[in-house]
Amino acid sequence: KKKLHLSKIYSFRCRKPGVKGGEDDHSQIGGPGFSRVVYCNEPNGQEAGLRNYADNYVRTTKYTALSFFPKSLFEQFRRVANFYFLVTGILSFTALAPYSASSAIIPLIIVIGITMVKEGIEDWRRKQQDIEINNRKVKVHRGEGIFELTPWKDLKVGDIVRVEKDEFFPADLVLLSSSYEDDVCYVETMNLDGETNLKLKQALEVTSVMNSDSDAGSFKAVVKCEDPNANLYSFVGSMEYDSQQHPLSPQQLLLRDSKLRNTDHVYAAVIFTGHDTKVIQNSTDPPSKRSNVEKKMDRIIYLLFGLLFVMAFVGSVYFGIVTRRDVDPGHERWYLRPEKATVFFDPRRATVAAIYHFLTVMLLYGYLIPISLYVSIEIVKVLQSSFINQDVEMYYEETDKPAHARTSNLNEELGQVDTILSDKTGTLTCNSMEFIKCSIAGIAYGQGITDVERAMAERMAGGSPSIVKKSKKDGVVGGSNARKPSSPLVKGYNFQDERIVNGSWVKELHSDAVQKFFRLLAVCHTAIPDVDEASGKVTYEAESPDEAAFVIAARELGFEFFKRTQTSVFIREMDLASGRRVERVYSLLNVLEFSSARKRMSVVVRDEDGKLLVLSKGADSVMFERLSKKEGSDYEAETRDHVNEYADEGLRTLILAYRELAEDEYEAFNDKFSRAKNSVSADRDALIDEAAEEIEKDLILLGATAVEDKLQQGVPECIDKLAQAGIKLWVLTGDKMETAINIG
C-alpha cells in the first residue's frame, strides 16, 4: 500500500456533515426520481430481492432471435422497389398475371433473403462483441472476505467489487477505498467523453476502513440515490453507514466503461447495472440507417414507377376506348370474339376491362423497375467493408488496431463527407506536453524552436529554419544559433537556456523571482510522486500532461518534488545562502482546484518560516485582473508581450503569481471554504468559488510558462489532402486566438 494520505489536499473532500444538515440537503432522497435503495454487500438479501433491479447483461445488437424475422422484413419493405415487387408478387397469383407466380416470387425471395442474411451476419458480429464484453471478469466479494473472478453479466446491484489497475469498471460503482491510503484514484473517461486527461476520484472518509479483502466481509451500508438517468456529470445520493448519513457526489461515482489508471486497485459497490448505467442510458438503439445513395435509388424507383404508371394508364385508356367500339357491328375485333369475351375483353364492360388491363400491364412492364439493383449495391457494400477491414494503410501498429466497419450500410457516405468538426488537443495533437519556454520577472528564457515557428519561418524565408526575434529586454533570443528541435531526453522537458540550467539561475539579477517561480511549479499541483526504491528516481502521476510537465521542469531545474503526506509537500531545492541543496517542507492547507470556469488553480501553504502563501497559476484572461495594483504588476507589460509571442509560436501559456496571507485573513477564508466544501446543496460549486475569490486577489506576478503540444505525425499532410478533396475542417480549441491562428 502506497503510504500517501491526501485528505486535506482536495477541495472536493466531503467531511462528515451534521445529521440535521445532511437531512435538509438530502430532502429529495426517497422522493420521485430519487427512489433507488442499494444494500451494499447484500445483493441476495430479501430487501434487495424485492427491488428487482436490472441485471448487468448489456445488448447492443439491432435484432434478437425473436425480432429478427419481423423487424428485418420491415426493413426490407421500407425499400420502394421491394414493396412494389411484393404487391406484384401477390397479384401474380390472380388471373391478371400474364406469367406464372413463381417467376415473380422467387426473385423477390432471393433478393430479400440475401439482404437479410447480410444483416444477420453483421448483427451476429455485434453479438460476438457483446458476448466478449459481458464475459469479462472482475473480482466480486462472495463472503468472508473472499473475492472470486466473476463475469460482468453476473454482477448484481449491491455487489462489492475489486477493480485492478488498467481494468474497465463493469458497472456504475460507488468508490469505497483505494490502494492509496487516502482513497483517491485516477480514472480515464476516454470512452465516455473523449477526454484523455485523468479524472481524480475520492472515496468517503468513513469507508476508508476497507484496506484489504478481509475487511469487505464485515462491510455493510445502505445507499439511497437518484434513479437511473443519462447525466454523466451529476450524482445525488447518501450512504447510511454506522447509523450516520454521509452525502455522496460525482466524486465517488465510477462510471461503466471508464478505466482505472495509475492506481493499483479500488474497492467499490455496484449501484447501477446493465441498461441502468449512465453510459448505456446515453446510448440509443442501433438505428435503421439508410445512406444517401439508397435514398436516391428510392427516388429513381419513384421516377421509374411514375413512367410505368403513365405507360400503363395511357395504354389502358386507349384499350378501353377500342374495346367499347367492339359493340358496334363492323367495328368489332372479330378475332377476339367479343360476343363470347370474358370481363378482360367484354365491350359491354369496357371500363372494368380497362382497369384489369391496367393491372395486367403494370405486371407485364414491371421489369422496367430493376429488382437486382439493390442486390448489386448490397454486394458492392459488403466487398467495400471487407476492403476497409483489410486495408493495411488504415492499420494503427502502436495499438494493434485495424479499421473495423461494424455495418456496411453507410460505406458510401465516407466519400460524401464535406465537413469535419474536430477537437484539437489529443486529436490533432499528441496531448504530450513539453516545457519549452518561460518568462520570469519580465525576462524571456528558453531557446527552443517550436513546430509552428519552424513552419512560419519556412513560409516566410523560403525554407530557412533560422528564426530571429527581438524582445524589448533580451535582444536576440534565437537566430542561427537557436537550438534545433530534437526529441527531448526527458519526457515533458525540452527547455534549454544557459542562464537557467545547471543552477546558473542564482547569478540572475532577479534570482529570488526565479526561485519563487520554480518553487511554485514544484508545490502548486495535485501530482503524486512515485520514487523508484532501486534507483531513487522520482516519477509523477498527474491528472493532466500540463501538470506533469511543470513538475518535471521544476525537478530538472533543481526544485525536486519528491514526497507528499497528508498535509505536506516535500521538495529539494537550492539554498541561496549556503549554495547547497536542502529539503524544505511546505504545509499544504488548501487546494482550490482548476476548472474550465475558474481557469486557474491555487494552493494555500505555510512555509518553514511560518509564512502563509497563496500560490496561483492560470490563464492570462483571469490572472492579470487579479494582480495587485501596487506591487503585483511590475513586469505585467513585458510578461504580456512574452505571452503573446508564445501564443504566436503555438505554445500553451499559464501565468504564475503569489501573495502572502495574514493569519486572521486565512482563518476567515478557511472557515468559509470548509463550510462550502461540506455543503451538498446545488450551489456548492458557487459557494466554493465565492470563498476562493476572497484570497485569489492582490497577487504578485512572477511570470509565465509556455509548453508545446506537438501535432501528431502526418496531421498537416492529412489536412492538406482533405482540403484537396474539398472537405472543410473546423477545429474547436481553447487556445488564445493567436495560437489558434498560427497552429492553423
Automatic annotation (TrEMBL):
It is a multi-pass membrane protein. GO terms for biological process: phospholipid translocation. Its main location: membrane. GO terms for cellular component: plasma membrane. Involved in transport of phospholipids. Belongs to the cation transport ATPase (P-type) (TC 3.A.3) family. Type IV subfamily. This is Phospholipid-transporting ATPase. It comes from Genlisea aurea.
